[in-house]
Amino acid sequence: MKTTLEIPDDLYRQTKATAALRGESLKDFVTEALKVHLERFSGPSEQRGWRSVFGKARREDVEAVDAITTTEFERIDPDEWR
Is 77 left (phi over 0), alpha (psi -120 to 50) or beta? Predict the structure, then answer.
């Protein structure tokens, strides 16, 4: 969805520069910032498992780790852990 926001010039420039330094588009940077901000007000995070314990890494950064941990946890026999 497209929308128009009016933000202060200094904030826009700082946001655009920070996104560029991180190698992200302005759209991706602002989208992620809004998600993080909303999570603070919405209570429990939608993130489950190890990400809920170790912080708020970007989804793109943790896909490989998620795949490995999912595979490894599926190999655990629950009866062996009782």
Answer: beta
